[in-house]
Amino acid sequence: MAGRKGSDFAGVSVAIITPFSHGDVDYGRLREQIDFQLDAGTKCIVPVGTTGESPTLTHAEHEKVIEEVIQHVAGRAKVMAGTGSNSTAEALRLTKRAAAAGADATLQVAPYYNKPTQEGFYQHFKAVAESVDIPVCVYNIPGRCGKEIEVATIQRLAELPGITMVKEATGKLDQCSEIVGTTNLTVLSGDDSLTLPMMSVGAEGVVSVVGNLVPADMIRLVNAAASGDFATAKSMHHQLFSLCNRMLGLSTNPIPVKTAMKMLGRDTGELRLPMTPLTDKQAEVLRETLLGYRLGLN
């Protein structure tokens, strides 16, 4: 389908971690992570999503991290701010604040825990989309949120001008196919390991976790798939699979990726409860995985 809404966000977006030091957000490290992504050619930075440990940030920290990212990126890439909530009023407040700070788009996770009806999902996202002038990416991740946004609801949401993208993390290729085939939304993979399969049926990129480590490799995969070079894309898919599957499967995101960044000397690796470190056995598997990918450890 030509002229998809949200196509300017096609490609690789990276859901960046939030570095902590002695319990506080480490803004110096945060700026280093942004520079690393920009140097690699990452098209869009996504702060304070799940990978950024948004559930354990204070409201003040949440807002400041978004503002710091926008200021440091300074127009060199897009910023899609994670401003979703299971409270519509809270999502509206965070999204308006991010839009005023200069965010290019907002990532809106499905309201979690309170398990809205499909009509509740629709009214929630509609309220957010109508409250700001920046595009909205609906984030469908039932494994985290307890309930799935159904295709019929996404089709209704696609009729709203402000809803332009869906980050699909249901793990269902058929769902991706149906959304691509029946709406003009840009679909982005929410699972690194499914990026190539989803792009083969019409998705246009990924919001990546593995991109925190190897953004250039993920960009190469996505660019190859977008250009129809599926031989290169398939080769990159298999190369990246150990990180996308073995590494990320070790524990809850972002525990493995933050641990890997610590091993690579690029982050403090500090987590906030209820996130806890990998076990020694898991850490050894991670170390072997990184060495197998030929990443140099500290």
Automatic annotation (TrEMBL):
Reaction(s) catalysed by this chain, per the record, are: L-aspartate 4-semialdehyde + pyruvate = (2S,4S)-4-hydroxy-2,3,4,5-tetrahydrodipicolinate + H2O + H(+)
GO CC terms for this protein?
cytosol
Location comes to: Cytoplasm
List the keywords (alphabetical): Amino-acid biosynthesis, Cytoplasm, Diaminopimelate biosynthesis, Lyase, Lysine biosynthesis, Schiff base
An example molecular function term from Gene Ontology annotations? 4-hydroxy-tetrahydrodipicolinate synthase activity
Q: What class of enzyme is it?
A: lyase
The protein's Enzyme Commission number: 4.3.3.7
Residues engaged in binding pyruvate:
T51, V207
* Pathway field: Amino-acid biosynthesis; L-lysine biosynthesis via DAP pathway; (S)-tetrahydrodipicolinate from L-aspartate: step 3/4
Residues at the catalytic site = Y139 (proton donor/acceptor), K167 (schiff-base intermediate with substrate)
- Give the matching CDD domains: DHDPS
InterPro entries assigned: Aldolase_TIM, DapA, DapA-like
One GO term (biological process): lysine biosynthetic process via diaminopimelate
Q: Which domain of life is it from?
A: Bacteria
Marked site (Part of a proton relay during catalysis) residue numbers: T50, Y113
Subunit field text? Homotetramer; dimer of dimers.
Name the family the entry cites: Belongs to the DapA family.
Per the entry, what this protein does is: Catalyzes the condensation of (S)-aspartate-beta-semialdehyde [(S)-ASA] and pyruvate to 4-hydroxy-tetrahydrodipicolinate (HTPA).
Mind telling me which HAMAP family this protein's record contains? DapA
The name of this protein is 4-hydroxy-tetrahydrodipicolinate synthase
Query: Which organism was this protein described from?
Result: Stieleria varia
